[in-house]
Structures are given as C-alpha cells and as structure tokens.
Design goal:
about 425 residues; Septin; elongated; about 50% helix; binds magnesium ion; GTP-binding; binds guanosine-5'-diphosphate; Rossmann fold; 9 strands; about 15% strand; 9 helices; six-stranded mixed beta sheet; three-stranded antiparallel beta sheet; GTP binding; 2 domains; coiled coil; alpha/beta
C-alpha cells in the first residue's frame, strides 16, 4: 500500500441525508462540555498601570476574593512583571487564574522603556508555548499555558486624556494581546467630566491607530449586548475591599464623608459591565483570540525568522519538510566550506611556523659559529700571551742568572786583592 495519502483539495460535493432514527451524535456538545469541565480552564490576566491606581483592589473585587497582594513602593529602578497563579472554583468549574502585575510601571523618571518589560514578558510566554509545540513529544494540554488572554490597561483618572506612556505601551501591545482599557478610580471624576474623558481617550486611541479588544458581535446570542458594551469602553471602574450593609446584604463599597460609592451599582460606575464582559460573556472569546490571532501572528513571525515559509522564492508552495531539507543541505555545504577554510588556514599556519622555526635555527647556528670563532680567537690570543710571558720569564731568569754570575766574579776578585 502506498504511504502517500491524497487529501482532497476542494470539499467534495456534500449530500444531505436524513436519519431514520436517533443516532446519538447530538450529544457531541455535551461531550465537549463534560470534557472541558473535567480539564478545568485557564485564564491569564495582566494588569498594566501605575502603582497605586487600584490594580490589586480591582482584581480582588472582580473575583470576589482576597489575593493578598503586598502594595509596592514607587522607588523601583525597573518595571518588574510578577505573576501569581490561583486555583478557583465556582460550582463544579475549576479555573486556574494567573494575575500578572506590572510592578513599578511608570515610576521611573525615564519612562521610555517601561513598556519593554511588558512586551518581553508577553513574548516570552508565546515563545514558551511555541517551544512546547515544536517538541517531538509535546504536552500542550498538561503544560501550563501562561499566554496572556486579557490585558487590563488602567488609565489614570486625570480627565485630560492619555499619557504618552499609555499610548506607546498600548501601541506596542495591540498586536500581541487583547487590550481592555479601563479608567481606574472612577469615583474621583464627575459624571460630566467622565463622558468627555471617555470620548477623548477613544479619539486618541483611534488617532494613534491603537487596536483595542472589541467584544465580538458575530455570535448572535451575545451580539446585541456586546455591541452595546463596545460603546461604553473604556469602562470607568471602582474597586474596593470594604463592605457595607444594605438591607441584610453586604455589598462592596467605598465610603466618603459625602456619601457611598457602591461598586456593583451601575449608576455609580461601570464595574458590573466590566465583569459581565470579561468574565461572564467573553472569557472564552479572549482565550480563543489569544490563540488564533495573537499567538498565530507571533508563531508566523518566529517561523519566518527561522527561515521557514509557505512559498519559495518563485512564490510556489513549498512544504515544511522541503524547506527544512534545503536548509539542512545548505547548512551542510556551509559547514564543509568552513571546514575546508579552517583546514587551509591550519596548513598555512603550520607552514609559516615551520619557516619561522627554520629562520630562527639559522640565526642560532650563525650565533653559535660566531661564538665558536670568538672563542678560538680568544684562546689563540691567550696562548700567544702565555707564550710571550714564558719567553719573558725565561729571559728574565737568564738575565738574573747572568747578573748573579757577574756579581759573584766581582766579589771574588775584590777579596783576593785583600
Ligand atoms: N478612590 C479610589 N481608590 C481606590 C480604588 N481602588 C483602589 N483604591 C485605593 O488606592 C490605593 C492603592 O490601591 P492598590 O489596589 O494597592 O493599587 P495598585 O498599586 O495598583 O495595586 C489603596 O488605598 C486603595 O484603597 C478606587 O476605585 N477608587
Ligand atoms: Mg498592587
């Protein structure tokens, strides 16, 4: 049997058939639900915003729990991304929630690079997923998926508009993550100002081409609510960890000398809209978009960087295997050329060294010969002076004897005369 399988290029003509009785595949959606519930869900949210804007408080409010975060100081030299993962359960649905905080964001005097740490973090999570996907033995289901599904961008409630850091950061992130801009501490801004502030923010985002996450309107069960909610963005939210008693119910609120802000009161702020949109209606859509849009883009860019493409230089379709094999043979050829080059270089170096050695041997030899000659000269000179000294000595002895003889004769002659 041939190993090659022919895949139909176009969908074959489909015929609709009627079933004469119940078969049972109408339970497929239930099977899917059961399986998903069994596996549990993962949701990763990133909070970007300056220290003290109420990020931690809002997370506690959104998930109606206390994540016990420690307030950070304003003096950090760099922005640090800190992620904490929690296991939550509601009815029989388990949620593995990761909250990623941008500690020190916007606290430095030079804020130029504040967004860089965030971009790097998001890319690193994509890269980890890609590396797992490229393994031979993959464990994509059991390995913790840390890709960020939603990014809540906390805007300072100045009433003036966005800061340049906000625009730069959102612009850098809009192709990597689902951005949901929110106006933090919305209780500090008046109703009239808020409307102006919201439209100013949206105008600035539009003018700078920043793509924020749009609640999907293609599913008709939610299209109406979602499209209405898209018009309320950016949500102006209030968070609180305090509760007050209204009737016999405890509700989250912030108390001021002039009154009380109820977090879940829709005439006080947009908190309920935010919770409805990101948790109750569109959490799955954000998870799906992260995979099919943002991760897909990252994966495509990385594979192209590695030299892979779906078409060759003549725009003809090329398979992954063909590209890989072409790259492999290219690589081997390069390796061989490199090896040859290194070998040639080695031979050349050996030759040079040999010549150098020969040259120095010749030098040494010449030096040795010269020393030998000098030594012989010295020896000869010494010999000559020794001979001369001997001769002088002999002459001296001879003269001394002569002198002694003459003296003796003279003395003898004198004594005879007496
Ligand atoms: N006025 C007001 N204050 C808030 C709000 N949310 C939080 N805060 C307060 O702001 C301070 C900093 O909040 P925190 O959540 O630690 O900010 P983070 O540094 O962004 O995590 C705390 O004193 C909170 O009580 C809000 O919606 N409105
Ligand atoms: Mg905090």
């Amino acid at each position: 049997m041939s190993a090659e399988v022919e895949f139909p290029k176009k969908e074959p003509h489909l015929r609709a058939l009627k079933l004469s009785g119940h078969v049972g595949f109408d339970s497929l959606p239930d099977q899917l639900v059961n399986k998903s519930v069994q596996n549990g869900f993962v949701f990763n949210v990133m909070c970007i915003g300056e220290t003290g804007l109420g990020k931690s408080t809002l997370m506690d409010t959104l998930f109606n729990t206390s994540f016990e975060s420690t307030p950070s100081s304003h003096t950090l030299p760099h922005v640090k991304l800190k992620a904490h993962t929690y296991e939550l359960q509601e009815s029989n649905v388990r949620l593995k929630l990761t909250i990623c905080d941008t500690v020190g964001y916007g606290d430095q005097i030079n804020k130029d690079d504040s967004f860089k740490a965030v971009v790097d973090y998001i890319d690193a999570q994509f890269e980890a997923y890609l590396q797992e996907e490229l393994k031979i033995k993959r464990s994509l289901i059991s390995c913790h998926d840390s890709r960020i599904h939603a990014c809540l961008y906390f805007i300072c409630p100045t009433g003036h508009g966005l800061k340049s850091l906000d625009l730069v950061c959102m612009k850098k992130l809009d192709s990597k993550v689902n951005i949901i801009p929110i106006i933090a501490k919305a209780d500090t801004i008046s109703k009239q100002e808020l409307q102006r502030f919201k439209s100013k923010i949206m105008q600035e985002l539009f003018n700078n081409g920043v793509q924020i996450y749009q609640f999907p309107t293609d599913d008709e069960t939610v299209s109406e609510t979602n499209s209405a909610m898209n018009d309320h963005v950016p949500f102006a939210v209030v968070g609180s960890t305090e509760f007050i008693k209204v009737g016999n119910k405890l509700i989250r609120a912030r108390q001021y000398p002039w009154g009380t802000v109820q977090v879940e009161n829709e005439s006080h702020c947009d908190f309920v809209k935010l919770r409805e949109m990101i948790i109750r209606t569109n959490m799955e859509d954000m998870r799906e978009k992260t995979h099919s849009k943002h991760y897909e883009l990252y994966r495509q860019r990385r594979l192209e960087e590695m030299g892979f493409s779906d078409v060759d230089s003549e725009n003809k379709p090329i398979s992954f295997q063909q590209t890989f094999e072409a790259k492999r043979s290219n690589h081997l050829a390069e390796l061989q050329a490199k090896e040859e080059e290194v070998r040639q270089m080695f031979v050349q170096r050996v030759k040079e060294k040999e010549a150098e050695l020969k040259e120095s041997e010749k030098d040494l030899h010449a030096k040795f010969e010269k020393l030998k000659r000098d030594h012989a000269d010295e020896k000869r000179k010494l010999e000559e002076s020794r001979k001369k000294l001997e001769e002088d000595f002999l002459e001296f002895t001879r003269r001394k004897q002569q002198l002694a003889t003459t003296h003796h004769t003279l003395t003898l002659g004198k004594s005879k005369k007496k």
